Amino acid sequence: MDRYQSKIRSYSWFLILLALSTTACTAQNVATQAPGLQPSLAPSPPSPAPIETPSPQPVVQNDGELYQEALTKADAANAIGQSALSKDDWFLVAHNLQDSVEILKSIAPTSSQYILAAKVLPKYQQQLASARQKAASFVSKSTESPVISLKVASTSKPDTFIIPIQQKLGGVPVIEVTLNDNYKVPMLLDTGASHTLITQATANRMQLQAYGRSQAKTANGTATFQVTTIDKIRFGNGITKDVQVAIGQNDLPYGLLGHDVYDGYDITIKENSIEFHKR
Fold first, then answer.
1. At what angle do helices 87-105 and 63-81 cross, to 10 degrees?
2. How open is the CA angle 111-220-201, to the nearest 5 degrees?
3. Strand positions, DSSP E, the chain
């Protein structure tokens, strides 16, 4: 009997140990599997905010730049008007003066440039009205007094060449021209100008002697020009000899290269250069 009871107790302890082992294993499995159950409960990381690309801002000129641009356009109109001999010449003068007037009107009353703009605005408006009237009432140049009487000039004409544009004044390109092989000067190239005109400063620098005078109508009224001759004018690879030219007044900023120098070429004006093609 004692032996039987001893076996029962041993078997009971075995069942207890087996139950404890099973409970421990179950707890261990739960602990092992628990981490795998948590990710679904963790908060998702926030989505990155979209990157906004700033819109390009327009380039805004200050009033000082606008005022200078207005003066530049008016100067270009004055230079072209001093040798204007066609309806297109006067339309170009009017176009530049119109741009100048509109720019001056756009300067705000609160600007430091407003007083200066208001001072010159009436002058340019008057010149604009005069240029428009001259363009509207222009008569054939055969009945109009010419600025100068031209000689027949001999021209060396390579087929094609390109001249870089140094700058533009009121849309009119400025190129470098060589006079008598030694004097490099900037000159406006206006395709509507018939004759060539140099500045008084250029005439003084080259020590040119005037041998006559001529009158012509300009944007500022009737003006008297002195007349002289330049032996050679080189523009790119083109050369024209024995050119009679007018000498501009003291306030003329640039000379004007006319058709009498580059006659016989078709001209293509691009953004930064001018192409000359022999006809």
1. 160
2. 90
3. 155-156, 160-164, 167-169, 172-179, 183-189, 197-198, 212-218, 221-235, 238-247, 255-257, 265-269, 273-278
- In order along its 279 residues, the chain shows pLDDT tens digits of 455 455 445 555 544 444 444 444 444 444 444 444 444 445 555 665 555 555 555 445 677 888 888 888 888 887 777 767 677 778 888 888 898 899 999 998 898 889 988 998 999 999 999 888 888 887 644 434 344 444 444 455 568 899 999 998 878 899 999 999 889 999 999 887 778 899 988 999 999 988 877 665 554 556 677 899 999 999 999 999 998 898 887 667 888 898 889 988 888 988 899 999 888
Instruction: Please tell me the distance from the alpha carbon of residue 54 to that of residue 202, in angstroms, as a whole number.
Output: 51
- The count of C-alpha atoms lying within 13 angstroms of the C-alpha of 204, restricted to the half-sphere facing its C-beta, is 6
Say whether 127 sits in a helix, a strand or coil: helix
Identity of the residue numbered 217: K
Task: Tell me the β-bridge partners of 225.
Answer: 214
Can you state the percent helix, strand and coil of the chain, rounding each to 5?
A: 40, 25, 35
List 112's β-bridge partners, or say none: none
Question: Which residue is associated with the tokens 């041993």?
Answer: 10
One-character DSSP codes across 115-184: HHHHHHHHHHHHHHHHHHHHHHT---TTSS--S-PPPPPPEE--SEEEEE--EEETTEEEEEEEETTTEE
